[in-house]
Structure to design on (183 residues):
């Protein structure tokens, strides 16, 4: 599978170093120290181009800090910082907001990353509006920390809406597709 993505140079080297130092001290096995969370929150406040920070440790430990003010970044900002293998800290823009249509089930992003609708550039998309999908079927790829993660449907039905744009950042929990389970 091809490698896609890159870094956005909007974070200064000082900010990247500060974030990397904070993340290296976050314990991944036991818990996340409150002072580290406060430090990450302060970094988010001091860097308006950052929409959110997600830190994942071993055995499912982690924290997500998201900007909640309306004055978020004007352009998508993404930075990938070299960290120990146990941590991931992608930084993304604010998620697209929309309301679910009644009776439609949502397929949401399980992580922060870059959304790809096809397995490689120029290939047909995994699914599009009107496609019939089955549980376990790959519907897209989300790249996080240079790793391509195939996202599988957890429901069977017909895709009624595609809400993410190809090669664009997505947030954890952002709705990617709406599916009619009765279709």
């Amino acid at each position: 599978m091809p490698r896609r993505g890159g870094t956005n140079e909007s974070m200064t080297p000082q900010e990247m170093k500060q974030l990397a130092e904070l993340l290296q001290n976050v314990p991944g096995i036991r818990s996340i120290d409150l002072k580290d969370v406060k430090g990450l929150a302060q970094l988010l406040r001091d860097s308006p181009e950052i929409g959110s920070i997600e830190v994942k440790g071993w055995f499912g430990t982690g924290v997500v800090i998201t900007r909640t003010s309306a004055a978020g970044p004007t352009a998508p900002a993404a930075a990938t910082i070299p960290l120990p293998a146990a941590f991931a800290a992608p930084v993304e823009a604010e998620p697209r907001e929309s309301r679910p249509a009644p009776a439609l089930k949502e397929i949401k992003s399980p992580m922060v990353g870059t959304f790809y609708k096809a397995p490689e550039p120029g290939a047909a998309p995994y699914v599009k509006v009107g496609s019939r999908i089955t549980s376990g079927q790959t519907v897209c790829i989300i790249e996080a920390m240079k790793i391509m993660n195939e996202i599988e449907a957890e429901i069977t039905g017909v895709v009624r809406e595609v809400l993410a744009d190809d090669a664009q950042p997505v947030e954890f929990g952002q709705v990617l597709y709406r599916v009619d389970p009765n279709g």
